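Worked Example 4.2. Consider the chain below.
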Amino acid sequence: MHKINPLSVEELVAYMFDNQQGGSVEQFQNDFSETVLLICELTKKCYVGFLQFENHKEPDEQFLYLSAHVYTLVESLYTSVKLLVHGFLAPSGNQFRVALEAMTLSVLLSWRGDLLLEKKSNRLVMRNFYEDFLKEERWTRSHLAIKILDKNRDKLGLSTDAMSLLNAAKDLYNSYSHVSLLSISAGIVSLDRVLFGGGYEHEQKLLFEKELHIRKQFIEKVPSFLESLYKRFS
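Applying the procedure from the previous section yields the following C-alpha cells:
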C-alpha cells in the first residue's frame, strides 16, 4: 500500500496526479495544476489541524471519537479531489458528502451536554448525543447530522450563514447518490463521445472547474474550523 506524507505538499501533488488514467490525468493537470496545488497546500494546513487532536495528551473516549471524525474530514476532502482529478465525478461528490457529515458529527461529538434530538417525526427530546452515538441510536446516524446541528445551532455557536453553507452543500451532493443529469454529464462528453470507467477531457473543463472551486472554497475554511473546535473541546 502506498503511504504518503500529508505534511509534504510535493507528495500530495504527486499522488494526486499519479498516472492511473493516462492522458486524461495529464490533461486535467494542464487545465487545473494551479488550483490543485493550492488545494494540496490547504490540505497540509488541514492535516496540521488534525495533528492537534492526534497529539492531545490523555484523551478520553469521546475525544478519540472526535479525533477520528476530524481525520475522516481531512482525508475525505483530499480523496474527493483525487477522484475528481481522475474523472470520477459522482464518487468524488459522495466522498465530499462524507467530509461534510464528518465535519458535522465532529461538532456534535465535541458537545459534552444534552442536545435537542428528533427521536421520531416531530418528537423532540433533550438527550446526550455522544451517549446515544455509542449505542448507535438511529437518530445519531450521519445523514441526520446536519439536521441535528441546525436544531442546536445557537447552543453550539453556529451562525445562520454557516448552517446555510452546510445545507446548500448537502443538497448539492445528495444529487450524486442517484442518477442525475449532473452525474451523467461526467461520462457523456457529447452525443458521440463517452467516457467509460472515469477520465477527463478538456471539453468538460467548465464542469470540473466548478466542482474544484466548490471544494477549494470549503477546504479554505477547514483549518480555522479545526482550530476553534480543538480550543472549545480541549
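The chain is about 65% helix and 10% strand. The mean pLDDT is 87. Compare this with Example 4.1 before moving on.
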